């Protein structure tokens, strides 16, 4: 590079740095007035430059993050999940669905993807009822190493086929950082399960994507620990995080776990992130799932998760807690 070209580049960078200083000052005068995600989407929709939109989005998010750190110098840092950082509710967009909006968005499906036929049967039933999103596990972390562990990438391929055939968004769990790149082409939402809530390398890897993340509360996690796990994702730049209460372990044995209904309003008070409730894993008892789901919605949940299978008795995992189609019809009809 010649001296003249160095000078030209230097002048460009000086102007760029001056604009960055001006931007930081402007952001500091607009505290809590910016809907960051709406603003970023508006900018991206009007950008037709050289860089990819994903690259520009990542750059702008990092600028917001750095601006917040600079304007908060000398004060206790505001956590990105907190109402202090953002007062308005966050909306996570999954296709045309708005999780965290005025209407609940419910996610149903089988515990595990066992075959194309089984998963397609559930997807067809859900689509017939107007539901546009489903869950299904391709990677299954289990208590025993001898239990069904899922179909892995084959399960992801089945979910992608289902998405194409039925026009339905798909949610599935990833369990390791390397799954992020592997699973991204197949899925619409990454789920990080209870057993991986504090898998920090996985949280950070998920935070470096633009994929919506459904984060489940750990088996014995406090709400503070749960929110701090979400912070790991947010701190990497991914603001598309959904919290999911799925029951915690207590001394009570009459249910699989203990559904912490109080977590819903407490999380909503502390955080702007959407909150869902999984009534299958929290209770493990089909005969009380409807009442628990109603309670969760009454407490302010943004949606319900539950499991349904065409033949629960034949299911390869959690066969006692998955609803049959007839049981699901009764559940869903009375939930509306």
UniProtKB/TrEMBL annotation:
Top-level taxon in the UniProt lineage: Bacteria
Q: Which SUPFAM superfamilies does the UniProt entry name for this protein? A: Aldolase
Q: Does the keyword Kinase apply?
A: no
Gene Ontology molecular functions? aldehyde-lyase activity; transferase activity
Domain annotation DAHP synthetase I/KDSA: ranges: 96-332
Gene3D superfamilies from the UniProt entry: Aldolase class I (3.20.20.70)
For the keyword DNA-binding, the answer is no
GO terms, biological process? aromatic amino acid family biosynthetic process
| Keywords tagged on the record | Transferase
Q: What is this protein called?
A: 3-deoxy-7-phosphoheptulonate synthase
Species of the source: Salinicoccus halodurans
Please spell out the taxonomic lineage of the organism that makes this protein: Bacteria, Bacillati, Bacillota, Bacilli, Bacillales
């Amino acid at each position: 590079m010649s001296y003249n070209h160095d000078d030209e580049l230097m002048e460009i960078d000086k102007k760029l740095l001056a604009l960055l200083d001006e931007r930081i000052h402007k952001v500091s005068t607009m505290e809590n007035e910016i809907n960051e995600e709406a603003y970023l989407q508006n900018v991206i929709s009007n950008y037709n430059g050289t860089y990819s939109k994903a690259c520009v989005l990542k750059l702008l998010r990092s600028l917001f993050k750095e601006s917040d750190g600079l304007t908060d110098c000398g004060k206790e840092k505001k956590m990105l999940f907190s109402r202090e950082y953002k007062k308005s509710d966050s909306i996570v967009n999954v296709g045309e669905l708005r999780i965290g909006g005025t209407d609940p968005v419910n996610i149903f499906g089988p515990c595990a993807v066992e075959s194309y036929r089984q998963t397609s049967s559930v997807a067809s039933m859900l689509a017939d009822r107007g539901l546009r999103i489903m869950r299904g596990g391709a990677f299954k972390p289990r208590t025993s190493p001898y239990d069904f562990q899922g179909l892995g990438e084959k399960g992801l391929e089945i979910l992608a086929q289902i998405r194409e055939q039925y026009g339905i968004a798909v949610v599935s769990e990833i369990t390791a950082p390397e799954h992020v790149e592997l699973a991204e082409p197949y899925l619409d939402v990454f789920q990080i399960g209870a057993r991986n809530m504090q898998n920090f390398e996985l949280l950070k890897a998920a935070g470096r994507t633009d994929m919506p993340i459904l984060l489940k509360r750990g088996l014995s996690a406090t709400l503070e620990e749960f929110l701090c796990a979400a912070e790991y994702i947010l701190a990497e730049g991914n603001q598309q995080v959904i919290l999911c209460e799925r029951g915690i372990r207590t001394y009570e044995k009459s249910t699989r776990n203990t559904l912490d209904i109080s977590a819903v309003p407490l999380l909503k008070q502390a955080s702007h992130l959407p909150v869902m409730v999984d009534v299958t894993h929290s209770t493990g008892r089909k005969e009380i799932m409807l009442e628990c789901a109603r309670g969760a919605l009454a407490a302010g949940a943004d949606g319900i998760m539950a499991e349904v299978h065409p033949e629960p008795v034949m299911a390869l995992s959690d066969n006692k807690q998955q609803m049959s189609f007839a049981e699901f019809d009764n559940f869903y009809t009375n939930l509306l």
